[in-house]
Known about the structure:
Layout: E1 4-6, H1 9-12, H2 22-34, E2 38-40
Parallel strand pairs: 1-2
Amino acid sequence: MSKYICIDSSVLVKVFIKEDDSYKVKILLKKVLEDEQIIVLPAFAGQKSVLS
């Protein structure tokens, strides 16, 4: 298993906004914490917007 896990913001937002499958994110994050993985953002998340 990789020490790193990439989680998109569309997944993380389900922690704060309750949706039908929000419980799955809690399960995922619990597993990430138990496995001591490091959460990283997708490569494009740090790039400046073309519209800026």
